[in-house]
Amino acid sequence: MIMTALCAVFIVVALGMPCTASAAAKKDKKPKLLGTMEFKGKIQKLPKWSRVVTKMQAWKGYFQDSKTANHPSKSGWYSLKSQIKGKPDKEKLKAVTKFFNKWPYRLDKANWGVSEYWATPWEFLRKSGDCEDYSIAKFYALQEVGFSQDQMRIVAVKDAIRGIGHAVLAVYTNDDIYILDNQTVMVLSHTKYKHYIPQYSVNEKFRWMHVAPKKRSTYSKTKK
Prior knowledge:
Elements lengths: L1 H27 L8 E6 L4 H9 L18 H11 L4 H12 L7 H5 L8 H7 L3 H12 L9 E8 L4 E9 L4 E4 L7 E2 L6 E7 L3 E6 L13
Antiparallel strand pairs: 1-7, 2-3, 2-6, 3-4, 4-5, 6-7
Helix pairs in contact: 3-4, 4-7
């Protein structure tokens, strides 16, 4: 009887172990940003981003200092923050991206006289900017409405459709990774962006290098 009972217990445990291990492995599996492998490291050789991070040490928040206190968008920002308080994450993301996408797109050459310049939020509010500047502005804005910087990355991508460089903001939530793009007010899962191939991503602490799989389902021109 004892041996039979022990055998029964052993069988139940043995049968249950694979399911438990499988469930744990599934739970621990992290989503791959835009379907790529990534390698985490220290921020190195990114002087434009490092300049922004250094400048932002004095940041008090949007419209909280003498440089922006009288900005015409101040009341709109405070109204937005009040409206989205307590709302689901995706609703917050939609509201923030819609707010900042209203700024006109301006090339760095026109704004700063150079081909590539990463603007601080102060500079963006004053002169607007291009793709990475929208992403930086949203990166700091979302920290005011409940997101941590560990949930976000500014992502430098290659747009396989247009064949040019681009930048977006990736936001990690409990259920997905969402992409905030200055080209649209829609906030979609990263899985919808098959034509964006990430080169690297950053927050204030780390830099990630990305490697796309060899077989990648993305946009390709039809051969004639």
